[in-house]
Prior knowledge:
Oligomer: single chain
Shape: elongated
Strand content: over 45%
Amino acid sequence: QVQVVESGGGLVQPGESLRLSCSVSGNILYLNGMGWYRQVPGKPRELVAMSSNGGSTNFGLSMRGRVTISRDSAKKTVHLQMNTLKPEDTAVYFCYASVQIHAVGNPNDLWGQGTQVTVSS
């Protein structure tokens, strides 16, 4: 029953902002990295922003400087603030979470279903 739930996608005009949110639902033992990727049809999925359990962040090149990511580990939630959006930011944005569900074994990689972000005038 552990899954990730995304929200915040939609249609915006160039130069505007959006905030995406992602939460892990269900019982887990530990939350590792959590963040966002995006994908355009026919192109590879690329990193937007990632937050580690230690507080460090990593940003992809395409949106670096225009995005911030915040994490609330207690709520198992991350927020992605995207500013000065451009038409080329149009993509499906996927939430990613690495979680430890059981006391033994490797962490699980969880992906959201994806939320559409369209930037168009």
